[in-house]
Amino acid sequence: MINLIPPEAKKRVTKEYWLRVVSVWSLSGTMALIASICILVPAYVLITIQISANEGVSQAASEKVAEFESVTKELSVANQKAKAVLENNRFEPVSPLVAMVRAHESAEVRVSQITVSRTKDGFAPIVVAGEADSRQALAAFRDRLLNEPNVSGVDLPISNLAKDKEIQFSLTITVKKPT
Question: pLDDT per residue over 55-86, tens digit each?
Answer without folding.
Answer: 888 888 899 999 999 999 999 999 999 888 77
